[in-house]
TrEMBL record:
<protein>
    <recommendedName>
        <fullName>FBA domain-containing protein</fullName>
    </recommendedName>
</protein>
<dbReference type="InterPro" id="IPR059124">
    <property type="entry name" value="Kelch_HCF"/>
</dbReference>
<feature type="domain" description="FBA">
    <location>
        <begin position="106"/>
        <end position="282"/>
    </location>
</feature>
<dbReference type="InterPro" id="IPR036047">
    <property type="entry name" value="F-box-like_dom_sf"/>
</dbReference>
<dbReference type="InterPro" id="IPR007397">
    <property type="entry name" value="F-box-assoc_dom"/>
</dbReference>
<dbReference type="InterPro" id="IPR015915">
    <property type="entry name" value="Kelch-typ_b-propeller"/>
</dbReference>
<dbReference type="Pfam" id="PF13854">
    <property type="entry name" value="Kelch_HCF"/>
</dbReference>
<keyword id="KW-0539">Nucleus</keyword>
<keyword id="KW-0597">Phosphoprotein</keyword>
<dbReference type="GO" id="GO:0035097">
    <property type="term" value="C:histone methyltransferase complex"/>
</dbReference>
<keyword id="KW-0677">Repeat</keyword>
<keyword id="KW-0880">Kelch repeat</keyword>
<dbReference type="GO" id="GO:0006338">
    <property type="term" value="P:chromatin remodeling"/>
</dbReference>
<dbReference type="InterPro" id="IPR043536">
    <property type="entry name" value="HCF1/2"/>
</dbReference>
<dbReference type="GO" id="GO:0003713">
    <property type="term" value="F:transcription coactivator activity"/>
</dbReference>
<dbReference type="InterPro" id="IPR008979">
    <property type="entry name" value="Galactose-bd-like_sf"/>
</dbReference>
Length: 713
């Protein structure tokens, strides 16, 4: 490999690798092999020995970094894909203990390393996969009423789900064993123990009962029933079942838990459930028996109540989507205080209410474009947060046609509009730029990608500014040439628009791993981690025939998607919602959420009915956890349910405006909201000391540094 080739490779192929790895790579290679599209995949008959001198520095890298290093040459590929390498990784990080040994032919150490199914906190019960039967009525108690408090192994207070007088049934069906881990063939060699556990408790002044059932794909079944008479002790009971006596490792299991109160009292007096877990245990003996055990959890002394506690609660009048059966909540997460305020008495003429519009913030200005109700509009409206004033700037230039459900993003000096619906069934692929200093429009003609066509016409996509570039993701295309004959096609493509001087061009990054499913009407935000200090996009929700509730990261520095497995109380799957980032949290508001009306099809797939919501959720981008929000829930103190609205973040406040309330299914002539709301997430900072500039007879001149726009609440 000559010097020129080395330079090109280091610049073009390895930009995403840290300098430390690059130095080790090029100083340690004894046989230089050029990187071609095939040489790291097509392994020929040549023999490559296992290089222990290179293994030692590579063991210090993360899994994502190693995936990049394996593309350098066939030698590195062989090292990183070797069984011995990943076994050492597992031993070094104590994923496997010294007394744990796998069969000689076991070849899935890398999968064990990436998603360790034997970790004590590993849980196959996903928080957002719980569903309930139609007649189920329950709610969430953050602090249990009528029973002792329950803590997890980290001494965190656990919330619980409490049932009522009708039998409440909760399901997770066909759980794969293990989820996203090694395949069944690999695991059949290990023969792990399958452990299910759940904590149940009565309300001391009411009788209650519970039922638990497990159905395994090999035909094995287990069930447990427990009855609590009235005036039972307040203790929690941990029920544990271990299944190890199987012939073939079962690939699927269905979990059902149910409970009710036996007094038939109105309200929530039935059995409480918490800390539900399904995990795998390393087998220590070939002849381990199936075991069932019930442990009575003794309360902490300070938790013995002298009088009834008064907890916060969350109503549960929807399909079970918050997963509190399987999670615990840190006390800090329950103290996030926010407050809504309706902004009445604005100055200037309010814009006409609409849906499908978009908004961005440039300093204290909220700039809103497009959307509509009785026809699509092309007007531009601006709200000044500092003066509480609406105005319509006098625009000039090549003004775009009105559109709805388009991409809208800004870098602070320019605002871009891409795509959207310009009339029913007719979508656009045009790109427009607005200069917010001159209020001047112009149409752009970006260069196409070098290896892909230009982005197709679409709606319901997202356009997000991050690290000097604009990222376009997803949306809905119409494959019919006749707008009246709509042939929808959901998209999950990703394009990047970059400016170079006065020109711009599209590129399509090369992605080597799995991407999010096709979708439209999702949300996308940018965040740079405070801990890992890496830039990423966060994609949430949307729809592709049914509402979605999954979360994905797109890492900008090495063009890779990863799906987030969040903890905490997950909100319902949704589309046409809004999401903004303030601090280290993503705030999600409103949107369409599904209604489940069939007992037989107790899931969200292909739902036929939905409704608007006004729920607010916060996702911690550092801990990947959904957090509880302390907010007033009186009807007059929160915005109405809506979808297709707009929201922006200005300092520590989120503003939302308009949107449709969802009572009519036709696109035109909707009932649209007229109100403007603000969510305060933190108190404005204190101003600095006032400084005296000049004093005279009858006058004083003073100054102080400005504080970000605040409001009195």
């Amino acid at each position: 490999m000559d010097t020129t080739t080395t330079t090109n490779l280091s610049i073009n192929q390895f930009d995403c690798l840290p300098d430390e790895i690059l130095e080790k790579i090029f100083s340690s290679l004894s046989t230089h092999l050029p990187l071609t599209p095939n040489n790291h995949v097509r392994l020929n008959a040549h023999s490559y020995y296992f290089d222990y001198s290179m293994q030692k520095p590579l063991l210090k890298q993360t899994h994502a970094e190693l995936s990049q290093v394996s593309l350098v040459c066939r030698r590195f590929y062989r090292i990183i894909k070797a069984r011995q390498f990943w076994e050492q990784q597992c031993r070094l990080e104590y994923i496997l203990l010294p007394d744990q040994h796998f069969p000689v032919d076991f070849d899935a150490y890398e999968k064990i390393y990436v998603n360790n199914p034997f970790h004590p906190s590993f849980n196959l019960l996903q928080d957002n996969k719980w569903f309930k039967s139609r007649r189920t009525n329950s709610k969430i108690e953050l602090v249990p009423i009528g029973s002792y408090r329950l803590y997890d192994e980290f001494n965190r207070l656990s919330p619980c789900r409490v049932t009522s007088y009708t039998l409440a049934q909760f399901f997770q069906r066909d759980i794969q064993l293990p989820c996203e881990g090694p395949g069944s063939n690999d695991f059949a060699k290990l023969r792990p123990i399958i452990e299910f556990s759940v904590c149940v408790a009565p309300r001391w002044d009411a009788g209650s009962e519970c039922q638990i059932k497990l159905d395994f794909s090999d035909g094995h079944k287990w069930q447990h029933a427990k009855v609590f008479p009235q005036w039972s002790p307040r203790n929690w009971h941990k029920i544990i079942y271990r299944y190890g006596q199987y012939e073939d490792f079962p690939s699927l299991v269905t979990v059902m838990i149910a409970g009710k109160d036996t007094q038939l009292w109105g309200g929530f007096y039935g059995t409480k459930f918490a800390q539900t877990r399904l995990r795998l245990l390393f087998r220590t003996s070939e002849n381990e028996l199936n075991t069932e055990n019930v442990e009575v959890i003794e309360p902490k002394i300070e938790d013995e109540p002298s009088e009834e506690p008064v907890p916060n609660t969350l109503e549960d009048n929807l399909p079970i989507d918050q997963g509190t059966l399987a999670i615990t909540i840190d006390a800090d997460a329950m103290t996030t205080k926010v407050q809504w305020k309706r902004l009445d008495g604005t100055i200037g003429q309010n814009p006409k209410p609409r849906h499908g519009h978009r908004a961005v913030a440039v300093k204290d200005l909220i700039i809103i474009f497009g959307g509509g109700n009785e026809g699509i509009v092309e007007d531009l409206n601006v709200y000044n947060c500092a003066s509480n004033q609406w105005f319509q700037p006098l625009v000039k230039g090549d003004v775009p046609t009105g559109c709805a459900a388009f991409g809208f993003a800004t870098d602070g000096t320019r605002i871009l509009v891409f795509g959207g619906m310009i009339e029913y069934g007719k979508y656009s692929a045009d790109l427009w730029e607005l200069n917010p200093l001159k209020w001047e429009w112009k149409k752009l003609k970006p260069r196409p990608p070098r290896t892909a066509p230009l982005p197709c016409a679409r709606l319901g996509h997202t356009l997000t500014y991050a690290e000097g570039k604009f990222y376009l993701f997803g949306g809905l295309a119409n494959d019919s040439k006749d707008p009246k004959q709509n042939v929808p096609r959901y998209l999950n493509d990703l394009y990047v628009l970059e400016y170079k001087g006065n020109s711009c061009s599209w590129e399509q990054p090369m992605i080597i791993n799995a991407s999010p499913s096709e979708r439209e009407s999702h949300s996308s935000v940018f965040y740079r981690g405070q801990i890992e200090n890496r830039p990423k996009l966060i994609i949430y929700g949307g729809m592709n025939g049914h509402r979605l509730g999954d979360l994905w990261n797109f890492h900008l520095d090495f063009s890779q998607w990863t799906q987030i497995t969040p903890s905490g109380l997950a909100p319902q799957p949704r589309s046409l919602h809004s999401a903004v980032v303030m601090g280290n949290r993503m705030f999600v508001f409103g949107g369409w959420v599904p209604l489940v009306t069939s007992d037989k099809n107790d899931h969200y797939t292909n739902e036929k009915e939905w409704k608007c919501t006004n729920t607010l959720a916060a996702f911690n981008l550092e801990t990947n956890a959904w957090e509880l929000l302390g907010q007033e829930c009186l009807e007059d103190n929160v915005p109405r349910a809506r979808a297709g609205h707009c929201s922006v973040a200005v300092n520590t406040r989120m503003y939302i405006w308009s949107g449709r309330d969802g009572y009519r299914k036709a696109w035109n002539n909707q009932v649209c909201c007229k109100d403007l709301w603000c969510l305060e997430t933190a108190c404005p900072g204190e101003p600095e000391k006032v400084q005296l500039l000049k004093a005279g007879i009858g006058n004083l001149e003073i100054s102080w540094n400005p504080v970000p726009t605040g409001m009195l609440i």
